[in-house]
């Protein structure tokens, strides 16, 4: 359209026609480039041969059966949170409060383990923990949603603040739950009785985690694709005007969707407490709420792509912290590695969405 | 003699794709003169002015400023030549004061001396008789005050050639009078002014000469003294062109809708619809004509339940004989009453369809609530999509291909197809063939005719008078939110409708 | 009396850290960029300054405190600005989503800080904690003479130079935003880039400069923490949630650097008030620690209810600008 205007050296236009193969190729190139930069980083610090570096990463992530299961377990939890934030994102509601919603789920689960661990039979206890974690996370999601729906209060900043309120709630609870007294930590809950611990399934320690997360993933996939609710939230996200045109009650959809989002994040909290760490602290969520946002965004709302990305990130994280420990360095190296990969993957989306035309090669389109 | 000419355009041509927006247009404005540029919507006035202000670059032709040939490649170039354009949508920053907006982006000393700036502005304001407080924030201003800021901004930056794009469209009569006083003052000060408009009475009142465009072509220039409303209308609308649209005779008319004195306002209290009353019949095609922004959109939305009314009733006469007053209901409630309204809005992808979804997904938009339980139906919408694709020749790789990427004609077929699939009793259509090629347009005409013959009350808003006269049974004309007349489309002439479209109170005599 | 003086002193010490972050973020947000990488950039600033000081002290037997300060100051600013530059390239040139890019920067920066903070001495062949005593104490040096005055000296003059620098930056920024041509243009870019563009303002340049310089300023908050607050050492995650509090402070201050000055002291006070209220149980203390966040949420709600135009975030906050999408 603007063909007459003075052309800059590089001209950018939106494109929508890139084939799937090309899209994947761009992303794979970005990931490879990021791995190269990571290798240079690691080499620069530990002077380790880059090939060995990656051997070390693979070994650290999946080298033993135990490591592999830890990687899978953590990837599952990250996937769970990513899946949780997805319906809200689809609706263009920037819920960056998953961290807090996870913690609320953790609190609900831990409270039931501590107070009802002795009294209730395991299946009932677990069910109750599951439901209460969901509800706790849901409430934490609904609070900002109500303000967004009615007064258009900025949800990004609101949910962000709620994360830290949630963290303080956790430290508040720790005061009552600390074990041993004076340690300021909760310690392993019900270490002896294992009450409220997710039992192994099919002989796999983290079998239940796998089943629950994959179940939730499938649920969200179907919810978004096949249900009336999913349809409504997609329309609201695309255009509020269209939603009004067909008579969708926009505030109701916002509150319902964010409530669901928060609830699933709460279940991630349940899995963290009951299914992996068996304790609770302010760092139980460990930044997953934030990483999950990136995972969900990069996957463009496709839950199965999220599974791949989540696994890749956790894989790199586990692998690089293994290397760091090996060299007596600190495990935060993994965050650096993950950060570098994210920068590349985030940046490469540009080349999928936009076309660059250099001056002189510009030609009439269509 | 030549240096008296402020700006001259010679044989300017601009094409968008295959469509000529401007075809060899020539224009000349002298210093100390107000030129009105007159034309219907889509006649190429705005495109032409955008070329002067550097937003588009002409494909062919020459532009002379002060007798020298120039090349205007960006808004900046245009600025530097002393050309100032005042758009319909003001480019102002809300939270800033008038003075801050006026100096925005200008070069100068790093530390601002707002006192000096305000004094300079005040001097300009006094010189031309504006009404403006330089320290007032934009968001507290009325539309006319914002317009004043835009004009002063251009003057402050030294513009000698001012272009105003439909400046009176948003003003009250008193504000228009004030604006015209200011424009005359500026003219007398030796500045050249181009005012784009389609309000004939204003053209006659303010301008010295009038240039007329029609469908991208330059028709001619006349001295305002020698022009009359009817001579200008004739030049503006031209001779009637027959479009050969099939038009079945209406039969078995049944009263379907009675609209009684409906009014509505925008957020600022301006009346968008003012006491409009009419009736619509099943089996009839009722056209709605008017200059854009005369209340057509609001009229359709009021009937569809998307617009809050300040007063009036919209009575729906159901086939069973019961009447409903729809004015208090919203779209969803009207739907629940079982009233079959279909609405094809102007903004097809932003309102009528969801761009990122395929045909199947878009079929669901109207029907997703159907069926019991939690899940949406899968088969029915897909079947409907396939059916529409087949029957209406929609060209799409698959029914799941995002509709956003389809051509305008296909998008409209999908929208129309969906809306008529619910067998409505009232069908509201806004600009059904805008942006469509000839063959798609005729397909849409046929689809709408079919609905009419099935006894549906079709209300069709359009801007092309030839099309309305050839296609509709009756035409109601809106002007400034008021109903100025309803004519028989078979008997009315183009001039007649054109006059009703511009029949503002003043010259209604 | 002395308790109150100590409380005020501590509140200011806590607040300055956030003030740097908030000032940097205000500048960034004024250009329409919501950079959630503030915590990351503060970590980067902290570790940058600490590493520069560490290597400088290691390289010479008689470190010059002033040279060390200059070096660490520049390193802190530049490393944090580098983080902001990555964010800018991603969001401004490559049009990535701002929230996503910002969060990735936080992950990266926090990791970088903790990694080098925890590994620095191991990497350089030493053992134990890093400590840059000379430079650290130089940063902590109070104003001579004036700080000796009772009460007034304690409250106003008993801080290192960065504290005063933070106040000066806030005042300078307020002047810049309100009284200079560039400040006016920057405001326009954040409010409505299309209008700014039409007025001939180089939107991309303004966005880059504001974001990168803003990032550098935020990084000084990290420097302040490692140098003046902890006296030149690193403790992993010791920085805590101050980065997010800085983001909260931006909202609380309604994007005005002057409000940020007193707001930071208030936040600092709220952050530690639990230590000064007698008779609080531990659990009640934890509730008190929520205060800064709750206050921010309330401010957020009130501003959205009152809809006063001057108190809203910059209009285009969070959106990428693409000229052809007009």
Number of strands of chain B: 20
The class by helix and strand makeup of chain A works out as mainly alpha
Number of domains of chain A: 1
What general form of chain B does the structure show?
globular
Largest interface, Cβ cutoff 8 Å: A-C, 58 and 57 residues
The unreliable regions of chain B are: 505-509
CATH fold-level assignment of the largest domain in chain B: Rossmann fold
Low-pLDDT runs of chain A: 1-7, 361-366
Strand arrangement in the largest pleated sheet of chain A: 1-2
From the 3D coordinates, which CATH architecture of chain A would you assign?
A: Orthogonal Bundle
Tally of individual domains of chain B: 3
Describe what you observe in this structure.
The complex is a heterotrimer of chains A (366), B (509) and C (326). Chain A has 366 residues and is mainly alpha-helical. Helix content of chain A is 71%, strand content 3%. Chain A contains 13 helices and two strands. In chain A, helix 2 (50-62) crosses helix 12 (303-326), helix 4 packs parallel to helix 6 (155-177) and helix 12 (303-326) runs antiparallel to helix 13. By secondary structure, chain B is an alpha/beta fold. Chain B folds into three domains: 2-237, Rossmann fold (3-Layer(aba) Sandwich), CATH 3.40.50.300; 254-340 and 423-507, Rossmann fold, CATH 3.40.50; 353-422, no CATH class. In chain B, strands 6-7-8-3-9-10 form a six-stranded mixed beta sheet, with helices on both faces. A six-stranded mixed beta sheet of chain B has the order 16-17-18-13-19-20, with helices on both faces. Chain B has a four-stranded antiparallel beta sheet with strand order 2-1-4-5, covered by helices on one side. The longest helix of chain B is centred in the middle third of the chain and has 16 residues, at 173-188. Mean pLDDT of chain B is 85; it is low at 505-509. By secondary structure, chain C is mainly alpha-helical. The model of chain C has no long low-confidence stretch (mean pLDDT 86). Classes of the chains: A mainly alpha (366), B alpha/beta (509), C mainly alpha (326). Chain A binds chain B through residues 1-6, 16-17, 226-232, 234-235, 238-239, 241-242, 244-249, 366, and chain B through 14, 16-17, 54-59, 73-74, 305-306, 330-335, 343, 345, 347, 350-357, 361, 364-366, 368-369, 374-376, 378, 402, 404-405.
């Amino acid at each position: 359209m603007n063909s007459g205007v003075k052309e800059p050296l590089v001209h950018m236009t939106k494109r929508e026609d890139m084939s799937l193969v090309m899209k994947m190729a761009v992303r794979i190139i970005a990931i490879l480039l990021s791995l190269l930069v990571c290798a240079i980083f690691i080499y620069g610090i530990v002077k380790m041969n880059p090939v060995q570096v990656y051997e070390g990463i693979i070994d650290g992530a999946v080298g033993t059966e135990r490591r592999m299961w830890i990687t899978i377990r953590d990837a599952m939890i990250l996937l769970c949170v990513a899946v949780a934030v997805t319906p809200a994102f689809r609706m263009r509601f920037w819920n960056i409060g998953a961290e807090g919603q996870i913690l609320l789920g953790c609190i609900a689960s831990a409270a039931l383990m501590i107070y009802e661990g002795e009294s209730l039979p395991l299946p009932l206890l677990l069910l109750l923990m599951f439901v209460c974690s969901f509800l706790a996370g849901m409430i934490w999601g609904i609070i900002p949603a109500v303000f967004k729906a009615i007064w258009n209060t900025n949800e990004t900043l609101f949910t962000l603040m709620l994360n830290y309120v949630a963290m303080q709630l956790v430290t508040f609870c720790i005061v009552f739950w600390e074990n041993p007294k004076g340690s300021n930590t909760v310690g392993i809950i019900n270490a002896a009785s294992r009450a409220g611990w997710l039992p192994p399934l099919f002989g796999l320690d983290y079998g239940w985690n796998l089943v629950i997360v994959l179940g939730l993933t499938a649920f969200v996939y179907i919810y978004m694709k096949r249900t009336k609710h999913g349809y409504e939230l997609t329309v609201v996200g695309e255009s509020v005007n269209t939603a009004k045109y067909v008579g969708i009650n926009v505030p109701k959809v916002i509150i319902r969707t964010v409530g669901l989002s928060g609830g699933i994040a709460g279940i991630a909290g349940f899995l963290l407490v009951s299914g992996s760490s068996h304790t609770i602290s302010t760092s139980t969520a460990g930044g997953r709420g934030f990483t999950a946002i990136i995972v969900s965004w990069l996957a463009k709302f496709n839950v199965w792509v999220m599974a791949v990305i989540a696994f890749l990130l956790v894989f790199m994280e586990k692998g690089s912290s293994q290397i760091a420990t090996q060299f007596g360095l600190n495990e935060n190296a993994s965050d650096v590695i993950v950060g570098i990969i994210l920068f590349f993957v985030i940046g490469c989306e540009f080349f999928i969405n936009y076309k660059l035309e250099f001056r002189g090669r510009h030609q009439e389109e269509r | 003699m030549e240096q008296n000419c402020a700006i001259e355009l010679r044989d300017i041509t601009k094409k968008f794709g295959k469509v000529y927006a401007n075809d060899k247009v020539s224009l000349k404005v002298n210093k100390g003169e107000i030129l009105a540029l007159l034309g219907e919507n889509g006649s190429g006035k705005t495109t032409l002015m955008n070329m002067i202000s550097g937003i588009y670059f002409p494909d062919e032709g020459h532009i002379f400023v002060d007798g020298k040939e120039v090349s205007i490649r960006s808004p900046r170039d245009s600025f530097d030549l002393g050309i100032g354009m005042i758009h319909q949508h003001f480019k102002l920053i809300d939270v800033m004061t008038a003075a801050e907006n006026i100096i925005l982006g200008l070069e100068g000393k790093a530390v601002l001396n707002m006192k000096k700036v305000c004094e300079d502005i005040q001097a300009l304001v006094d010189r031309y008789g504006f009404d403006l407080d330089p320290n007032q924030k934009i968001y507290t201003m009325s539309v006319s005050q914002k317009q004043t800021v835009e004009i002063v901004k251009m003057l402050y930056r030294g513009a000698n050639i001012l272009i105003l794009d439909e400046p009176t469209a948003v003003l009250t009569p008193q504000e228009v009078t004030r604006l015209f006083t200011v424009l005359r003052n500026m003219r007398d000060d030796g500045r050249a002014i181009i005012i784009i408009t389609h309000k004939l009475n204003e053209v006659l009142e303010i301008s010295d000469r009038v240039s007329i465009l029609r469908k991208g072509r330059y028709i001619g220039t006349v001295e305002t003294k020698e022009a009359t409303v009817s001579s200008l209308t004739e030049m503006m609308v031209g001779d009637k062109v027959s479009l050969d649209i099939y038009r079945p005779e209406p039969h078995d008319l049944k009263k379907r809708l009675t609209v009684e004195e409906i009014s509505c306002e925008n957020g600022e209290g301006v009346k968008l619809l003012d006491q409009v009353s009419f009736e619509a019949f099943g089996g009839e095609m009722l056209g709605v004509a008017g200059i854009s922004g005369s209340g057509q959109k609001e009229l359709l939305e009021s009937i569809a339940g998307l617009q809050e009314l300040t007063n009036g009733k919209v009575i729906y006469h159901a086939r069973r004989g019961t009447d409903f007053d729809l004015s208090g209901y919203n779209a969803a409630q009207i739907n629940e009453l079982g009233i079959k309204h279909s609405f094809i809005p102007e903004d097809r992808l932003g309102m009528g369809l969801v761009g990122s979804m395929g045909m199947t997904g878009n079929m669901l938009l109207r029907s997703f609530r159907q069926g019991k339980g939690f899940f949406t139906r899968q088969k029915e919408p897909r079947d409907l999509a396939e059916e529409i694709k087949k029957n209406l020749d929609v060209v799409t790789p698959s029914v799941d291909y995002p509709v956003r990427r389809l051509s305008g004609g296909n998008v409209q077929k999908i929208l129309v197809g969906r809306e008529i699939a619910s067998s409505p009793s009232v069908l509201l259509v806004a600009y059904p063939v805008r942006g469509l090629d000839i063959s798609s347009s005729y397909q849409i005409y046929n689809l709408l005719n079919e609905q009419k013959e099935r006894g549906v009350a079709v209300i069709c808003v359009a801007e092309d008078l030839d099309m309305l006269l050839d296609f509709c049974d009756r035409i109601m004309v809106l002007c400034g939110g008021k109903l100025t007349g309803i004519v028989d489309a078979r008997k009315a002439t183009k001039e007649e409708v054109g006059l009703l479209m511009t029949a503002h109170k003043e010259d209604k005599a | 009396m002395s308790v109150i003086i100590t409380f005020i002193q501590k509140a200011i010490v806590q607040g300055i850290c956030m003030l740097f972050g908030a000032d940097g973020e205000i500048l960034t947000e004024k250009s329409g960029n919501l950079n959630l990488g503030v915590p990351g950039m503060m970590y980067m600033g902290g570790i940058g300054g600490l590493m520069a000081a560490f290597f400088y002290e290691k390289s010479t037997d008689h470190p010059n405190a002033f040279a060390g300060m200059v070096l660490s100051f520049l390193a802190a600013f530049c490393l944090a600005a580098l983080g902001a530059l990555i964010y800018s390239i991603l969001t401004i040139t490559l049009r990535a989503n701002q929230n996503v890019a910002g969060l990735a920067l936080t992950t990266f920066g926090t990791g970088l800080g903790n990694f080098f903070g925890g590994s620095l001495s191991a990497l350089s062949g030493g053992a134990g904690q890093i400590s840059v005593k000379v430079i650290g104490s130089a940063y902590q040096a109070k104003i001579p003479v004036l700080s000796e005055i009772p009460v007034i000296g304690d409250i106003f003059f008993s801080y290192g130079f960065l504290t005063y620098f933070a106040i000066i930056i806030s005042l300078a920024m307020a002047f810049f935003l309100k009284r200079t041509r560039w400040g006016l243009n920057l405001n326009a870019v954040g409010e409505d880039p299309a209008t700014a563009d039409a007025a001939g303002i180089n939107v991309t340049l303004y966005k880059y400069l504001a974001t990168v310089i803003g990032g550098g300023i935020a990084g000084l908050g990290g420097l302040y923490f490692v140098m003046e607050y902890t006296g030149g050492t690193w403790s992993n995650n010791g920085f805590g949630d101050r980065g997010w509090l800085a983001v909260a402070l931006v909202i609380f201050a309604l994007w005005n650097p002057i409000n940020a000055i007193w707001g930071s002291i208030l936040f600092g006070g709220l952050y530690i008030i639990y230590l000064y209220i007698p008779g609080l149980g531990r659990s009640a203390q934890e509730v008190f620690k929520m205060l800064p966040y709750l206050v921010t949420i309330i401010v957020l709600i009130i501003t959205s209810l009152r809809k006063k135009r001057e108190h809203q975030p910059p209009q285009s906050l969070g959106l990428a600008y693409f000229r052809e999408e007009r």
